[in-house]
């Protein structure tokens, strides 16, 4: 060990393609990283310089709009610049990770996934034991409140080591993390993790941690877990959303308008939101200008998302007739006055917002009630030409 911290340069790139055909999703990709370590005083680190290459493929089958099963294969290649390190060992290795897994949205508050498989890694130096061992990973995310999300994960990786005569070691880590949003720009987070260093290909002991987890792990994180925005994926009905298209904006946009809705809200507005959707529509049709309410489409959309996730909102004093009625009032107010709200509108909007698929009877009820509110607003407010 040197007396000063070891510094290094990292150059990396990754690329991937995704294609959907029917209910199947195919992802292909690769990653590359070049590590260049600086020597520290008399300690030579040039023998740690290496290239990490990962190549992978994942085939998924979406057997339900909220659930997908998949199989994946990753090739992990680790090539050191020096043929042998300062202790005379050949550290180059290559191997594979194969796994079958599952991911899904269990409720509007809980989503996650897991996989099980096998890791195999072989070193060029015959003095190192090849690695062949089970592989696993899992993650859960839970929206405890509209502002707090708790997540937990367990993961396994094959780490490099600086211990002379050791090839590497398995690192298994479990962690839990909580994030609380004060407003659209301020968040507090806290977490705890615990890891275990198990034996890898080393003969005679555990390793000392070295940077980088190998190309195989990079493919998993940067290619397989990387996602296009939901609204850019296939499977969303082709329906005109009008100003509901703002649901495609980044999450912080909706969070900001959620905060604005809470600031704008007054308890006298609860009189409208406590009504069944048809009664609320009648009130808006006959007394539109005199009815206290949230008028901003974005604020109403933010409240709609809260109702769909939690069955309620943070707005005080509301005892809604039902969650469907309350969601319909917010959605009917958020939508274009001149565009009908259909079941396809509900499917498209909810998928863009990342919500779980609704039962058909609930979706039909929501679309009908929200459209009734929209029509009432059109009559009560009068026609518009700018939407």
Automatic annotation (TrEMBL):
Region described as Disordered: spans on this chain: 188-211
Pfam families, A to Z: BBP2_2
InterPro entries to which the protein is assigned, alphabetical: BBP2_2
Name this protein carries in UniProt: Uncharacterized protein
Organism: Thiohalobacter thiocyanaticus
């Amino acid at each position: 060990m040197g007396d000063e911290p070891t510094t290094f340069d990292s150059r990396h790139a990754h690329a991937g393609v995704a294609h959907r055909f029917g209910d199947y999703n195919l992802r292909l990709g690769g990653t590359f990283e070049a590590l260049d370590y600086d020597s520290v005083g008399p300690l030579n680190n040039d023998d740690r310089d290496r290239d990490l290459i990962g190549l992978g493929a994942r085939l998924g089958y979406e057997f339900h709009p909220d659930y997908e099963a998949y199989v994946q294969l990753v090739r992990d290649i680790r090539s050191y610049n020096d043929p042998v390190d300062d202790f005379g060992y050949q550290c180059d290795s290559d191997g594979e990770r194969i796994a079958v897994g599952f991911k899904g949205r269990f409720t509007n508050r809980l989503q996650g996934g897991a996989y099980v498989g096998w890791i195999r890694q072989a070193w060029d130096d015959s003095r190192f034991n090849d690695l062949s061992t089970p592989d696993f990973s899992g993650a859960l995310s839970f929206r405890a409140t509209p502002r707090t999300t708790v997540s937990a994960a367990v993961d396994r990786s094959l780490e490099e080591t600086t211990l002379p005569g050791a090839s590497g070691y398995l690192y298994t880590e479990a962690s839990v993390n909580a994030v609380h949003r004060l407003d659209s720009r301020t968040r507090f987070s806290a977490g705890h993790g615990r890891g275990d260093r198990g034996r890898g290909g080393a003969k005679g002991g555990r390793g000392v941690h070295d940077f980088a987890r190998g190309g195989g792990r990079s493919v998993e994180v940067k290619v397989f877990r990387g996602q296009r925005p939901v609204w850019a994926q296939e499977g969303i009905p082709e329906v005109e959303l009008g100003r509901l298209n703002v649901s495609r904006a980044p999450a912080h946009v909706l969070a900001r308008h959620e905060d604005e809705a809470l600031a704008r809200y007054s308890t006298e507005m609860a009189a409208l939101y406590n009504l069944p959707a048809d009664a609320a529509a009648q009130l808006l049709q006959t007394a539109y200008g005199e009815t206290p309410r949230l008028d901003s489409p974005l604020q109403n959309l933010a409240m709609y998302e809260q109702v769909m996730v939690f069955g309620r909102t943070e707005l005080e004093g509301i005892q809604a007739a039902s969650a469907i009625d309350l969601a319909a009032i917010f959605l009917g107010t958020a939508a274009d006055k001149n565009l009908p709200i259909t079941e396809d509108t509900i499917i498209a909007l909810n998928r863009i917002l990342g919500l779980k698929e609704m039962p058909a009877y609930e979706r039909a009820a929501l679309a009908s009630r929200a459209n009734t509110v929209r029509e009432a607003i059109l009559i009560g407010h009068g026609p518009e030409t700018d939407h």
